[in-house]
Amino acid sequence: MIEFVAPPHEDPALAQSPLxxxxxxxxxxxxxxxxxxxxxxxALKRYFVTWAAExxxxxxYTADDLYGVNKVLNEHDFPPLxxxxxxxxxxxxxxxxxxxxxxxxxxxxxxxxxxxxxxxLAHHILFVLDHxxxxxxxxxxxxxxxxxxxxxxxxxxxxxxxERFAEVLFGAGPEDHWAYAMxxxxxxxxxxxxxxxxxxxxxxxxxxxxxxxxxxxxARVIQAESDTVLPDITRH
Length: 236
Prior knowledge:
It contains ten helices and eight strands.
């Protein structure tokens, strides 16, 4: 069994979630500046993408990171914003109407209650949103989040690579790059964006290893059956 507990609205650990920060900033932008314009394909218009890139300060997707590979920014050039946009609509925090993204009553209410907003985002990104559209070939994830979270609860207690995670879940070997991508896109990345896992990258110029560890927010909001078998952490 896995139980999510809503964190207190003033909990400083919520600052570890770039997804929550992005949602608060986006909903706050609509309240202050009005609805956000949409393109004909219903993507967020470039002026907002530029503002979001410069304001969100999303780990690994900062304005410097994004402009390092793009002269101008469209929504699809900022992958976390694509997911956030989908989440706001999926969770009915915002809606499309007449070529604009409008905040809903629910969005306005949760904007004042960050802990509850985090729970809404967590529910939709983990249990509702279809992540297959964010993969190269539309790969769907077959599995049980109860299993995923219990495995991570134990394995990431002292540090987990996505190769190890893919090995435990899918029996993946060193050359099974598809399994690594599935584990990262569908499971590990959403948990990092929720602020439940910390991701540390090693290697230059491109990261050759990614290590995931649970952080303060995980301990505060997730209660799992596997808590009883967690190993002791040796501190030096």
